C-alpha cells in the first residue's frame, strides 16, 4: 500500500490524479491521461483554495465547472463523475485542519456551483456552435436564391451534411424540405415530415411569445427569432430544441420561405433538471434541502394579505450519542427513517418537510389558518417519533425538540423567522427536550442580546470597557472600614452599564472569565496598594483589604496560584491584604485536586472566603477540610432582621452559624445589610464584618478612601 501524501501540495496532486482517472475515459480529448491530469490540477487548486478560504466564494466552483467544458469534458457523465469525486475526496485531501461539518457544507455548495458553471459553459459553447451554423445557414440563403441557376449541389452538401436539424417551409407553414438531422430528431421519414404544417406543432409548454413571433416573421415584420421550444414526437415523447427561424427573401426582397434551425437540447434539459433536483434536495434523505426550503418560505411570505405561515424547527435530542456510539452509518440510517416519518406528517396542501442539515429538520405549513394547523403539525411530528427505530438490530428511542414560529405573511424575512425558530427550539431543548415551544418575541430578544454580548466579550476587555466598583466592608464592632469587595462592571457601548449577572455566566461559558478574572484581580490589588499608600495616617486600623471573587472556571485554571503570586509581587501588596471569595456551591464535594491551589494560597497568607454560605446545602462538618478563613453569610438568612423584632428562627440559625464559625476560628461576614436595626442585631449575634447599602453602595475607589479617612479621624 502506498504512503499517504505528506504535504498540502501532495494531497492536492493526489486529488487531481483521482479526478483525472475518473473523468478521462468519458472525455473527448487527444491528450494523454497524464497531460489531462496536468490540465485539471489548476481546477483542483481552485476548489481547494475555495474550500479553505476565510470567506466562501461559490464563483470558484462555477469557474471549475466551466473549466471542465474548456477541457472538452462535455459528456454529462463527465460532470456526474466529477461531482462524485469532489463529494468523496475534496474534503479528505484538501480540508486538513478545518471543521468537518463546515467543510462538508462548503464542498456541497462548490458541487452545486460547479454544476451551474458546467451547464452555463456548455450552453454558451453550444450557442456559439449554433451561431456558427446559423451564420453558415444565413450565408446559404444566397445559395438558395442562386440554386435555381448553378450552385444547388453546394447548398445540398451543406443542407444534408449539417449536424443541426434544418427545415424549409413556405410562408403558409407547409414544410417543403428537411435534412437528415431533422428527420432523426423527430424519428420520421422525409415523407412523414414533408407536407405537414408548422402550426400543427403547438405544445403546452410553448412560451407565450412563440406564435406572435412566428406571425411577425411570415408577415415580413422581422427577419428572425430564437427561442426554446418543445415538440411532440410520434411516440409521445417530447423533443426539446433551441429553435432559430429566419426569413428568406427573393431577389426583389419579398418574403418567400422560412428557414428553421433546430438543435436537440433534450439530453441537456434532462441533465439540468437532474442537477436542479440534486441542488435542491438532500442526498441522504431525498427531502428538500435548505435552498429549496428557503425558496418555498419566500414564496409563502409573499402570498399576500390574509395568508399566514407556520414553521416547526426540529432538532433531535441526543443524536450525537448515536453517532458517537454506533457510528455515522447508523446515524444516517436513523436520519433516513426520521425523514420518512416526517414526510408522512406533512401531506396536506401547503405543507412540506425539509432537512436543513445534520439532525435538523423543518416543517412548513401555509394558508389562512396556520395558527391551528401548525400546532397539529407539531403534535403529529412528536407522535411520529414515539415509536422506536430499529438500527442494526437495536431499538433506538428518538426524541426531538421543536421551535414553532407562526404569523402573517410579509411581516418578517425568512432569515428572521428561521432565527426565531432556532432560538425557540433551543429553549425547548434547555427545558428538557422532547417538547415543542412557541416563539416568544421577548425571549428571542433576550437570546439575541445574549448572543450579541457573547460575541462582543472578547474585544471588550481589549477596548477597556470593563471597570470596577468597590463596596466597603465594615467592622461591626467599631464601625471602621476594613476593606472592600471588588465588583466588576461592563460599560457596553449600546446597553450601558451591565452588572456581573448579565455577563459573568457568558464569560464562564466562553472561557473569557480567566483573562477577565486576572484583570480584575490585578486592578483590585493595585487599588489596594494605592489605598494603603494614601491611608498612612490610620496604621492602627491595619491595611485596607480587598476581596476579589473567583469563578469555578478560575479555580480549575492551572495558572491561578502563579498569577496571584506575580500580581502581589509586582504591586508590593502583602498576601494578608487579599481575600479571594469562592462560592459555597463551587466547593461542594470538591476533591483534593481542586482544593490544592486554594490551600497553597492560604498557606501564603491569602484569606479564602466561602461566599453565599448557606445556599449550597454543604455539610457543616465539611468546613474543617476547606482552606477557608472567612464565612460570608448569604443575605437570605438576615433579611428578616431588617424589621424589629426579627424572626426568632432566623436569629437562632445565624447565632448557630456564628458560634460554629468562631469555634473553627473563622470570621463571619454578612452581606446585604440595609438597615441600622439589622446591623445592630448582627453585631449582637457576634458577626465580625458586614457590607450593604446601609453603609454604602458599590462605587468608585475614591469614595472608599474618603470613608476610611472619616473612620480613622473619628
Automatic annotation (TrEMBL):
Residue ranges of every copy of the PAC domain listed in the record: 225-277
GO biological process, one term: regulation of DNA-templated transcription
Span of domain EAL: 450-712
Gene3D superfamilies linked: 3.30.70.270, EAL domain, PAS domain
Residue intervals of the PAS domain: 151-221
CDD domains: EAL (cd01948), GGDEF (cd01949), PAS (cd00130)
Record InterPro entries: Biofilm_reg_signaling, EAL_dom, EAL_sf, GGDEF_dom, Nucleotide_cyclase, PAC, PAS, PAS-assoc_C
Domain GGDEF: 307-441
NCBIfam families per the UniProt record, alphabetical: GGDEF, sensory_box
Protein name: GGDEF domain-containing protein
Amino acid at each position: 500500500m502506498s504512503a499517504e501524501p505528506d504535504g498540502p501540495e501532495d494531497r492536492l496532486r493526489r486529488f487531481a490524479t483521482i479526478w483525472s482517472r475518473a473523468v478521462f475515459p468519458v472525455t473527448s480529448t487527444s491528450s494523454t491521461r497524464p497531460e489531462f491530469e496536468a490540465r485539471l490540477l489548476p481546477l483542483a487548486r481552485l476548489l481547494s483554495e475555495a474550500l479553505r478560504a476565510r470567506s466562501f466564494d461559490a464563483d470558484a466552483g462555477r469557474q471549475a465547472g466551466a473549466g471542465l467544458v474548456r477541457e472538452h469534458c462535455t459528456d454529462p457523465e463527465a460532470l456526474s463523475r466529477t461531482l462524485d469525486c469532489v463529494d468523496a475526496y475534496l474534503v479528505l485531501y484538501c480540508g486538513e485542519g478545518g471543521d468537518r461539518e463546515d467543510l462538508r457544507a462548503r464542498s456541497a455548495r462548490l458541487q452545486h456551483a460547479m454544476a451551474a458553471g458546467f451547464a452555463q459553459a456548455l450552453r454558451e459553447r453550444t450557442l456559439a456552435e449554433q451561431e456558427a451554423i446559423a451564420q453558415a445557414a444565413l450565408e446559404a440563403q444566397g445559395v438558395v436564391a442562386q440554386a435555381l441557376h448553378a450552385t444547388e449541389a453546394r447548398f445540398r452538401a451543406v443542407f444534408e451534411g449539417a449536424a443541426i436539424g434544418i427545415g424549409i417551409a413556405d410562408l403558409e407553414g407547409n414544410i417543403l424540405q428537411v435534412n437528415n438531422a431533422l428527420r432523426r430528431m423527430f424519428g420520421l421519414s422525409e415523407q412523414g415530415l414533408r407536407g405537414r404544417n408548422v402550426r400543427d406543432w403547438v405544445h403546452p409548454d410553448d412560451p407565450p411569445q412563440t406564435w406572435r413571433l412566428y406571425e411577425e416573421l411570415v408577415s415580413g415584420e422581422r427577419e428572425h427569432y430564437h427561442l426554446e421550444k418543445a415538440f411532440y414526437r410520434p411516440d409521445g415523447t417530447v423533443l426539446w430544441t433551441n429553435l432559430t427561424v429566419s426569413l428568406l427573401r427573393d431577389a426583389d426582397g419579398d418574403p418567400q420561405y422560412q428557414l428553421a434551425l433546430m438543435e436537440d437540447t433534450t439530453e441537456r434539459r434532462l441533465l439540468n433538471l437532474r442537477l436542479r433536483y440534486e441542488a435542491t434536495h438532500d442526498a441522504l434523505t431525498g427531502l428538500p434541502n435548505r435552498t429549496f426550503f428557503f425558496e418555498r418560505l419566500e414564496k409563502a411570505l409573499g402570498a399576500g394579505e390574509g395568508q399566514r405561515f407556520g414553521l416547526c424547527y426540529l432538532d433531535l435530542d441526543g443524536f450525537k450519542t448515536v453517532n458517537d456510539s454506533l457510528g455515522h452509518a447508523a446515524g444516517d440510517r436513523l436520519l433516513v427513517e426520521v425523514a420518512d416519518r416526517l414526510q408522512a406528517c406533512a401531506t396536506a396542501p401547503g405543507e412540506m418537510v425539509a432537512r436543513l442539515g445534520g439532525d435538523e429538520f423543518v416543517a412548513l405549513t401555509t394558508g389562512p389558518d396556520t395558527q391551528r394547523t401548525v400546532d397539529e403539525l407539531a403534535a403529529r411530528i412528536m407522535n411520529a417519533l414515539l415509536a422506536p427505530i430499529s438500527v442494526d438490530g437495536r431499538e433506538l428511542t428518538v426524541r426531538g425538540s421543536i421551535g414553532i414560529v407562526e404569523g402573517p405573511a410579509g411581516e418578517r424575512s425568512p432569515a428572521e423567522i428561521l432565527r426565531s425558530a432556532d432560538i425557540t427550539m433551543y429553549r425547548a431543548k434547555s427545558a428538557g427536550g422532547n417538547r415543542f415551544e412557541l416563539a416568544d418575541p421577548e425571549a428571542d430578544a433576550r437570546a439575541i442580546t445574549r448572543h450579541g454580548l457573547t460575541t462582543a466579550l472578547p474585544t471588550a476587555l481589549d477596548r477597556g470597557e470593563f471597570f470596577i466598583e468597590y463596596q466597603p466592608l465594615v467592622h461591626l464592632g467599631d464601625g471602621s472600614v476594613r476593606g472592600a469587595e471588588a465588583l466588576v462592571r461592563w460599560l457596553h457601548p449600546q446597553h450601558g452599564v451591565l452588572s456581573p449577572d448579565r455577563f459573568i455566566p457568558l464569560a464562564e461559558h466562553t472561557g473569557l472569565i480567566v483573562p477577565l478574572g486576572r484583570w480584575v484581580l490585578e486592578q483590585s490589588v493595585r487599588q489596594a496598594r494605592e489605598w494603603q499608600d494614601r491611608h498612612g495616617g490610620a496604621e492602627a486600623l491595619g491595611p485596607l483589604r480587598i476581596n476579589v471573587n473567583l469563578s469555578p472556571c478560575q479555580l480549575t485554571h492551572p495558572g491561578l496560584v502563579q498569577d496571584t503570586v506575580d500580581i502581589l509581587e509586582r504591586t508590593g501588596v502583602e498576601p494578608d491584604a487579599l481575600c479571594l471569595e469562592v462560592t459555597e456551591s463551587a466547593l461542594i464535594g470538591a476533591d483534593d485536586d481542586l482544593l490544592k491551589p486554594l490551600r497553597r494560597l492560604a498557606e501564603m497568607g491569602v484569606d479564602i472566603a466561602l461566599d453565599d454560605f448557606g445556599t449550597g446545602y454543604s455539610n457543616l462538618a465539611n468546613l474543617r477540610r476547606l482552606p477557608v478563613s472567612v464565612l460570608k453569610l448569604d443575605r437570605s438568612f438576615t433579611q428578616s432582621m431588617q424589621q424589629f423584632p426579627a424572626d426568632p428562627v432566623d436569629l437562632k440559625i445565624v447565632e448557630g452559624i456564628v458560634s460554629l464559625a468562631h469555634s473553627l476560628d473563622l470570621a463571619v461576614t454578612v452581606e446585604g445589610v440595609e438597615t441600622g436595626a439589622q446591623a445592630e442585631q448582627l453585631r449582637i449575634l457576634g458577626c465580625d464584618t458586614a457590607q450593604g447599602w446601609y453603609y454604602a453602595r458599590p462605587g468608585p475607589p475614591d469614595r472608599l478612601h474618603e470613608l476610611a479617612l472619616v473612620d480613622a479621624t473619628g
